Amino acid sequence: FTSPGKRLLRKKILFPLTDETKIKSIWTKIEKLSLDKRVRSEIVALLSESSDLDRLMARFIAGKVLPRDFR
């Protein structure tokens, strides 16, 4: 898991969806991803290269952002 993914998972566990339509929509998307290994691999590769935007914004707001944070 990526750091943002861990935070999102925690949020979803603490505050689960209750709208049946939204839940079904998510399950449909999950099913499509589970059936397409190529797309799933591409998404994992892209996410592994991306920055942790939540952490970066927190550092920026706190005035502690460094040049290396923008790599």
The Rg value, from CA coordinates, equals 16 Å
Percentage of β-strand residues: under 5%
The overall pLDDT average reads 86
Instruction: Summarize the helix and strand pattern as letters.
Output: HHHH
Walk me through what this model shows:
The chain is built from 4 helices and no strands. With 71 residues, the protein is an all-alpha fold. The longest helix has 16 residues. The two termini are 20 Å apart.
Q: Quick recap of the structure?
A:
The protein has 71 residues and is mostly helical. It has helices at 3-14, 20-35, 37-49, 53-61.
Key structural traits:
71 residues, mainly alpha, 4 helices, flat
